[in-house]
């Protein structure tokens, strides 16, 4: 799958297929218990000091594309007061 990236209202939404051929990625993901193949992350100055927050993970390309569209629509409406990084199980509240 190609890298999907969209921008809505100052929010960057990025969905990628993880590089399972890269031994480093495979080892780190295994150690962290991350079995997914695709993930969507968002970046915005109001959350996590404008660093990426992984908001959803997927096993299939179809689900990843659907999830990417879901987050675009959410960004158009406005993000909630807190978002969760699903990889590290941590909530990030709006900073502004």
Give a description of the structure:
With 96 residues, the chain is an alpha+beta fold. It is built from 2 helices and 6 strands, in the order ββαββαββ. It is globular, with a radius of gyration of 13 Å. The relative contact order is 0.22.
Summarize the structure.
The protein is 28% helix and 33% strand. It is of the alpha+beta class and 96 residues long.
What percent of the residues sit in helical stretches (DSSP H or I)?
A: 25-40%
Order of helices and strands: EEHEEHEE
User: Can you tell me the residue ranges where pLDDT is under 50 for at least 5 consecutive residues?
Assistant: none
Shape: globular
The average pLDDT is 87
Lateral arrangement of strands in the main beta sheet: 1-2-3-4
Q: How is the main sheet built? A: 4 strands, antiparallel
Distance N terminus to C terminus?
35 Å
- Count of individual helical segments: 2
Radius of gyration from the alpha-carbon trace, in angstroms: 13 Å
Strand residue percentage: 25-35%
Number of DSSP strands? Answer: 6
Our count of domains comes out at 1
Based on secondary structure, the structural category is alpha+beta
Protein traits:
two-stranded antiparallel sheet; alpha+beta; four-stranded antiparallel beta sheet; 2 helices; single chain; 96 residues
């Amino acid at each position: 799958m190609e890298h999907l990236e969209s921008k809505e209202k100052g929010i960057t939404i990025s969905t990628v297929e993880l590089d399972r051929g890269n031994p480093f990625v495979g080892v780190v993901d295994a150690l962290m218990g991350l079995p997914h193949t695709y993930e969507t992350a968002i970046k915005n100055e109001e959350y996590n000091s404008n660093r990426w927050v992984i908001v959803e993970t997927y096993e299939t390309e179809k689900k990843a594309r659907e999830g990417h569209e879901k987050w675009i629509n959410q960004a158009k409406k406005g993000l909630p007061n807190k978002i969760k990084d699903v990889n590290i199980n941590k909530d990030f509240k709006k900073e502004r």
